[in-house]
Design goal:
Distance between the termini: 88 Å
Bound molecules: zinc ion
Oligomer: single chain
Helix content: 10-25%
Shape: flat
Radius of gyration: 29 Å
Number of strands: 13
């Protein structure tokens, strides 16, 4: 489907701030997807130019006429998204959030996020599968319990030694696993959180102007399911301390925690990600959740500016000692 402005015919994009399609040409807004030509994914529905590399894409911008259109056959794919969490703020706001977060870092290179409109930041609807995961754990511990009491002038301490058996059952709904090879990066997991309340039924209107992709593999994929299960296992292990509350000298002698990610009700979901790749002073990747603003990544540091700073400081020290010597010279 082609997103054409009903007023001027230009290609429209979804504006998170307006909750509507916006025409970058004339400012016209539309809450509904304008009726447009069907896009077969092979040729541009506006100018007829051939489209390339559309296999995994849900949306495409024609390299000739710059029109945005959905790749309609891919929207019918069995792995096509059923849910989406729309972007809640635009690139400009994303840029400000990154700058705010790195505000305290000195010597930020001048070229870092140099463009005020945030155009250097990529907006991507990243494909995720969400799984319901059940986890089970069995633990054994040697533990001690100490009790002190006073009889006459003497304080006695009893040490009771126990062998503890503990079992845990846990279930997790909608554990998200990103389903795109190029995004598989620990930092994206740290920045993108799945919150069921923010997820809505998929509507292609959100895709206008933003790259969006199909999952690379189906929900049955072993690797995806293992990642969801591993996440559940580490969540269970992280709460292990609670199992031995009240005991001292706890020593674990056995642990078996395993989890199973169920693919039968896994849902294909698009989550909004801002990505800023900064090449300079080492490669730096910053990811941000496009709804919550949660961010991960590291900031670069301009070593030239650090050096300049220290040179100036050294010069100041030199100057002030020269001044002190000067004063001393006068006094003597
Ligand atoms: Zn227009
Ligand atoms: Zn075109």
């Amino acid at each position: 489907m082609l997103y054409t402005c009903s007023a001027c015919g230009a290609s429209m994009v979804y504006g998170p701030e307006y909750h509507a399609l916006v025409c970058p040409q004339c400012g016209n807004t539309s809450e509904k997807m304008p009726a447009g030509a069907v896009s077969d994914g092979k040729t541009c529905a506006a100018c007829g130019a051939p489209l390339q590399n559309t296999e995994n894409r849900l949306v495409f911008q024609c390299t000739y006429c710059r029109s945005w259109m959905t790749i309609d056959p891919n929207l019918q794919d069995q792995n096509a998204p059923k849910k989406i969490r729309p972007f809640a703020f635009g690139r400009k706001a994303a840029r400000e959030k990154i700058l705010d977060a790195f505000d305290h870092i000195p010597f930020m290179p001048k070229s870092f996020l140099a463009e005020a409109d945030g155009e250097e930041i990529e907006a991507i609807y990243a494909p995720f599968w969400t799984y319901d995961v059940s986890a089970e754990g069995r633990y054994e511990y040697d533990a001690e319990e100490q009790r002190s009491y006073t009889a006459g002038d003497t304080t006695h301490t009893d040490h009771d030694v126990y062998h503890l058996y503990r079992g845990v059952e846990a279930s997790f709904d909608n554990v998200p696993v990103d389903a795109m090879e190029s995004l598989q990066d620990p930092t994206i997991d740290a920045s993108v959180a799945y919150r069921p309340d923010d997820v809505t039924d998929f509507d292609p209107v959100y895709l206008a102007g933003t790259d969006a992709f199909l999952p690379e593999k189906p929900a049955e994929d072993e690797g995806y399911r293992r990642r969801a299960a591993d996440w559940a296992v580490s969540s269970v292990l992280a709460k292990e301390d609670r199992l031995t509350n009240g005991y001292s000298e706890v020593r674990r002698t056995y642990a078996d925690v395993h989890a199973h990610a169920d693919e039968t009700n896994a849902e294909s979901t698009l989550l909004p990600v801002y990505r800023y790749l900064y090449k300079g002073f080492g490669d730096h990747k910053i990811y941000m959740d496009g709804t919550t603003g949660r961010m991960s990544g590291d900031a670069p540091c301009d070593r030239g500016r650090v050096l300049a700073h220290y040179l100036i400081e050294a010069a100041c020290v030199l100057l002030s000692s020269a001044a002190v010597i000067g004063i001393l010279g006068v006094l003597l």
